[in-house]
Amino acid sequence: MPDAQPTPGTPPPPSARAWRWKVVGLVIVAGGIVADLWTKDFMQGLLGMSPEQPHGSERQHEVIDGILRFAGNWNAGVTFGMAAGLTQPILLFTMVASLGIGTWLLVTRNQSRVLHVALALILAGAVGNLYDRWRWKMVRDFIVVYWKDPAIWQWPAFNVADSMIVVGVSLILWLELFGRHGDARPAPGRAS
């Protein structure tokens, strides 16, 4: 019996290449979650971070004097500490967003490796911070970028999960702004 032909108007199933990028994406998700949670646990011990002291840690570690240090901070909000104290709504939103991003990663027919890597990074970062928020009701941040002295200028503390989310979102923006778009160019061998 011959293979069934797709119904006209129905998109073809994802190719082997698309499935390969989904698997790569899932490996990135797993590796990203492990890296995030390991660095948070390591820094919590190294810096003496305690949820009872949410605005600092016992110790700090200068990485590059005048630019980068590790200093513990417990973030009860989201980006830049916004929405502090709204743990339950943030948990719910993060769970729904994570499910949506995971579904997008698994069902997209887009074969772009950049999109798959970006979605995987965002998902890994979201799940890493979701774990912290579920366990501690706060997120462990420890990377501090500053100029000369934190009193002069300091970026809000962040962690590996935050970095993965920012890189993932940046990749999607780059893809949308500068990536190739299928409808914008005629197929090879066809006149426009």
Architecture overview:
This protein has 192 residues and is of the alpha+beta class. It has one domain. Helices cover 50% and strands 12% of the residues. It is built from four helices and four strands. It has a four-stranded antiparallel sheet with strand order 1-2-3-4. It starts with 15 loop residues before the first helix and ends in a 14-residue tail after the last helix.
Task: Map the helices and strands.
Elements: H1 16-47, E1 60-64, E2 68-75, H2 87-107, H3 113-136, E3 139-147, E4 153-154, H4 160-178
Antiparallel strand pairs: 1-2, 2-3, 3-4
List keywords for this structure.
elongated; 4 helices; 192 residues; four-stranded antiparallel β-sheet; 12% strand; single chain; alpha+beta
TL;DR of this structure?
The protein is of the alpha+beta class and 192 residues long. The chain is built from four helices and four strands.
What is the helix fraction of residues, given as a range?
A: 40-55%
Principal-axes shape call: elongated
Task: Give me the Rg, rounded.
Answer: 21 Å
- Total domain units: 1
Number of strands: 4
Mean pLDDT: 87
Fraction of residues in β-strands: 5-15%
Task: Output the helix-strand order.
Answer: HEEHHEEH
Termini separation comes to 40 Å
Unreliable stretches (pLDDT < 50, length at least 5) are 183-187
Major sheet description: 4 strands, antiparallel
Q: Structural class of the helix and strand makeup?
A: alpha+beta
Number of helices: 4
